[in-house]
């Protein structure tokens, strides 16, 4: 991604942070990280998906504002 950002003349710091934010953002939409805890608690993915989507939407706004302003 660094060569692509350099070829486009984009800020390298913003490019790297955009990649990191995007990866973390999708981890909120697909909560594979929570599967062991859900199994221990006896819950299903449906039980936490609403919370994950809410966090996804709010953090998406924060990520976009952060990348745009800084």
Automatic annotation (TrEMBL):
Keywords: Membrane, Transmembrane, Transmembrane helix. The chain crosses the membrane at residues 48-69. Pfam families: SCFA_trans. GO terms for cellular component: plasma membrane. InterPro entries: SCFA_transpt_AtoE. It comes from the Bacteria. This is Short-chain fatty acid transporter.
